């Protein structure tokens, strides 16, 4: 904690944050691959292990480039695997397993989301791996964790969302009783686990720098998803209420998506002055005087009456106009954009959020760059996902010193 | 202040200048892993979550918000009014012995206070600093007011949350704030790693709006590359015939079922006892099932309605189908899995005590996963910072308090 008192360093750097760190990623779909992708964006060398022939599951998930399915054309796969090297290795064979363990001795981090049962059956759980590589930092991601009665359940993001309490409070307001629960878009549980897994991996690395210890870290998708449900947990813990639509904490109003001339616009008035400014923007400052509407809880209660008064203004203005008018008057608001509108938004374009790059097989395509800018850091991030088995020879040949002839034998036997 | 010797961040000090969720959640991860996190607030602008109900007692109390006390466990609290010149000097003194500064003020605020990264680096050359704002520090909309749902809207997620015939719905758990915090924590940890090798710091500017778009990559690529626009469609996806909630026997009981490939469809058919309707020729392939999705969902719903939620759960899992009940927060917190894994720990806070808090979701084998100390009471650690950390004489600390610097 005390300052190192070194001379003032220039912050400009050519050196990626995780330069020199090698990561092996073993798994499929979202959580472990996303974790690997994020570490690659931070400058680590990430090597992805896939089963020979088929590759991992996500290679078959749409959307595909120009809707043409193929092992190397999933755009879903492209995002979650950008910047990695790809190796095929059949860990189910005894030769493959031995090769894998030998390989792990040469790396810093192993990120995996392999089912608990399968790791045990293959004798590739933390205990076995740490026996061969005691200083390795292993990060295990899974739907329900490495322990507990649900550890072996079959569960994708829909099911994890349902069982972690994230869907019973979506939408936040239950206006039509009997409606089914709703899953939030974007594969939230595995996305969160992949993100927190990247943080956990580097925490393990830091401890190894300090104390020389290896580490086993885990993040369970259901647990991180449940840990974010502050609103519904607050109501339950405090008031004993757990009915559907427990997603509202506080009494702000409006705090909603409102319809307008050409779509929807979010209007959020957490403070009273936001409400009064909104009325001025609408041209109805006199409504400020109505005592019945002078706090958030009352406005929520009387919302149908309020909406009747203010809706003509909303229905005669477009979302872009309302968004900008409100923001100019310091009222938290946001247009609800479809993705093509986000793609054209001036703020995103100013920050070059969607740069173009020339992909080796897709040609020039826009991609989603990381959402941060690092002052004075001039290093480049790798951009594209590996073709199936693209780096098997170079990685195994170089790193393990396996002669080409042996690699060919392994390939014939289906190990690679 | 001491934490546990096996925790990775035991020698790291963090200043949090943040409010609401993104920064407090971010630094709670550091605090859980042993860092000393000093949360800074002022009388004029307490963290607004302190004002978020429910709170213990009849009226608002800065120390009684359960929500605040969950998000800020394991941290220390300092009152310092950065608009006062003398406070700025004290802040720089603290920065000189601090590793990480985390802030989520409106873009440009730190610079206008004279406390931007380049200034702070004079006092801590290897400082790691995260500036997190709604739209980032640059660009025409950088000063827009940005609560989480604003960014969900502009970033393109909110448009996808809801039913075909209904409005977009606000996320019930501020998703964008949390993912932004996770981007920040990856950067901070990686910068700490590099700093130990090269002595360099880092300043990162994170745009929550861009985080929102990064959370829906498939939607982005299908739109930007293939020109296909995704819209709201309940819990369905574009490519699964069965990916929805189905009603079960009972009151508001639902089972989520997701069938991802042919093998899972066959397993599902078996689970229904090879019901006649599952063998209809029009449901023979994934493509044909997707074409008749409404009809198929209706039939699945008829079948699930004949059994209870827990029967459906056990039966489908036994056949290897990805299926599970919709649990309420009560069922989550009191469920056997949650209890077995000690997901929640009791809050040791003197006012919100014994309520459940989700403890660290990063589990490091062999190291403690604990609430070492409750969230700080209002200004609780001013004495620690002034007397112990900065070595002020008690009289000086009193003077600073009286003159409103420590407020």
Q: How would you characterize this protein structure?
A:
The complex is a heterodimer of chains A (416) and B (407). Chain A has 416 residues and is of the alpha/beta class. Chain A has 17 helices and twelve strands. In chain A, the strands form three sheets. A six-stranded parallel sheet of chain A has the order 3-2-1-4-5-6, sandwiched between helices. In chain A, strand 1 (22-26), helix 1 and strand 2 (45-50) form a beta-alpha-beta unit. In chain A, helix 1 (31-41) packs across helix 7 (188-211) and helix 7 (188-211) packs across helix 8 (221-227). Chain A starts with 21 loop residues before the first strand and ends with a helix. The model of chain A is unreliable at 3-11 (pLDDT under 50). Chain B has 407 residues and is of the alpha/beta class. The longest helix of chain B has 24 residues, at 175-198. At the A-B interface, helix 2, helix 6, helix 7, strand 6 and helix 8 of A face helix 2, helix 6, helix 7, strand 6 and helix 8 of B.
Put the structure in a nutshell.
The complex is a heterodimer of chains A (416) and B (407). By secondary structure, chain A is an alpha/beta fold. Chain A has 17 helices and twelve strands.
* Sheet with most strands of chain A: 6 strands, parallel
Q: Label the structural class of chain A.
A: alpha/beta
Tell me the strand order in the biggest sheet of chain B: 3-2-1-4-5-6
Distance linking N and C termini of chain B: 22 Å
Strand content of chain B: 5-15%
Q: Enumerate how many helices of chain B there are, as a single number.
A: 17
Q: Identify the overall geometry of chain A.
A: elongated
